[in-house]
Amino acid sequence: MTPPSLLTISVRPDKEKPRLVAHSRIYNKIFISSITEFEVINGATPAQLDFWNNMLTGFTVLDFDSKTAREAAVIVKQLKNKRKSIDKPDLFIAATAVFHGLTLDTNNKKHFENIDSLVLLKDENGG
Questions:
Q1: Judging by DSSP bridges, how do beta strands 103-105 and 119-120 pair with one another?
Q2: Has residue 126 been placed in a domain?
Q3: Has residue 125 been placed in a domain?
Q4: Is the N or C terminus of the chain more exposed, i.e. has fewer CB atoms within 10 Å?
Q5: Cα–Cα distance measured from residue 96 to residue 48, given in angstroms and rounded to the nearest whole number
Q6: Is residue 127 part of a domain?
Q7: CA distance 92 to 87
Q8: What confidence tens digit (pLDDT) does each residue in 37-72 have?
Q9: Which domain holds residue 96?
Q10: Calpha distance 34→101 (Å, rounded)
Q11: CATH classification at residue 51
Q12: pLDDT tens, 85-102?
């Protein structure tokens, strides 16, 4: 059986490196959204930028395109029915994961927990 694939949004190289290494041993392929790529590059110090330029070569970056934009619109409609909202970058990352059928790994599960169509990676504590 082929191991599953994972979309990750871990963005802190100092704190998330062990987690990313563990993921690389478990998952067949690790993806990031182009939105995540923007977030890490935009906020990186020169030292972090070197880390991320090297690290990004090991990921497949999924673009936010017309199909994921339409998925985002579906998610917004579902959230409005629940009277919930989500920040645009998180929405676009979630839409990317949903459209591609990927499990999402994040430290900010509360940002994403109201999206029924999104599968979040469970941590060791079951959350």
A1: parallel
A2: no
A3: no
A4: N
A5: 25
A6: no
A7: 9
A8: 998 888 889 988 998 888 888 889 999 999 999 999
A9: 5-120
A10: 16
A11: 3.40.50.1010
A12: 999 999 999 999 999 999
